[in-house]
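Data availability excerpt. The first of two example chains:
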Amino acid sequence: MAIAFDAATGSAEFTDDITFTHTPVGTPRGALLLVAYFGTADDEIAVPTYGGTAMTEVALSPVLQTIGETLAVHAFFLGASIPAGPQSVFIDCSATVGTKRAHVITYTAADDTSIQDTSVLNS
């Protein structure tokens, strides 16, 4: 079974710590959390959790845009021991300067998943 999209959930806008619920459709084998924020080029996100398990920040994250329109995107991943059913996603903000929005995406597969490579695009 190839890796396939399972479900996605977006948060409301936030500036401080937030918790929201993500409900997978199938049995997740990967969970990707993306957090975008505007108004600062600082690193404002501490380690988030999915179902109480700490997520690992993806290599080269955050991508920071410091010239022109200031923004940042963080990526976190969990690829093993992912709990099934509805799960709480908790994001700990180490600073409350920028307005943020988060999306968590789960994936199904035959076995646990991992990130093989990352790249940065600065436009």
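And the second chain:
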Amino acid sequence: MAVYDFPFGILEVAKILQLIQRFPGPNSSYFDCPFCGKRGKLNLNYIKNVWRCNYCGESGGMLELYAKVYDISTSDALYELKEILGDTRK
């Protein structure tokens, strides 16, 4: 598995997507799922930058979360997130 050095984490992605946090934790938190709508079922892991809904089963990495919400590719998601966050690194 490849490891990438992103200039941001999944929590920043959640803030951009305005996900509603229900159960905060130090290494992961539960949010409302933007896909099935269930309250507090979407787990975001801050250490691994991954997510999974414990209700509908959707899951992936932080780029896939943004990409899936906006129905775009992960490369477009990376570009948009870097633009939003003001990161000029290529």
